[in-house]
Every structure is written in C-alpha cells, then in structure tokens.
Amino acid sequence: MNNLKKWWGEIGSPYLLISIVMVGITALLFYTRAIDLIVKPRQASYQEKPAGKIVDIKMYDLVFIPKSTITTTIGIYQVGGAVSAIIGDTATFKVETFGNNSKKSFLCIESEVKTDCYRIL
Known about the structure:
The chain is α+β, with helices and mostly antiparallel strands. Helix content is 31%, strand content 44%.
C-alpha cells in the first residue's frame, strides 16, 4: 500500500494532471470549431439571368411530394413544390454558389399571386 501512495505522489498525479489538461484543451478546440461552423454565415454569391415569361404550368404529386413543370419562353424547368403563378408572369433563373463550390439552382417567379423561388430538380 505504501508503494502505491509513493507512486501516486511522485509519478501518477503529474500524469493525471497532464491528461486532464490535454482533454480540456481538446474539448475547447472542438467547441470553438463547432461554434464557428454554426455562427459563421455561409459565403454565397448569386447569379441571375432571365428565364422568360411563363407559358404553361403542370403539377404532379408523386408519393406525396409535389413537383411542377414550368414551361417558359426560354426553356422547361422542373421544380420542387406546388407553384402559384399566372401565365405570363416573369421567371428568373438564379444560381447560388457557396464557398466550397457547391451550387443550388432556383427558378424565381414574380407573380401577383405569390412571388417566390423554387428549387430546380
């Protein structure tokens, strides 16, 4: 028993103290990195170009997930969600680019019914 007390007093306690300090520093580094990811806003850039005027809208309900096909004077777009618009409304193609080069594409519609952007599938 005396050998254990001697070992703890001379050798064991400094190793335990160093281990506790290292675990604390590691936890602090992980915490600050996580806070940076949560609080730091995403750096995004936007590019917009006209997508023409709406010619036709068709809505589909596939397994409780609504999708819409929008035909404009420039092209045909399939978007997620039910679109509220009127024939002749203006559409804009919008691309959002993030810092890690990932992109999201949207079709934005300016309408008297509802002005909104819909994710392109």
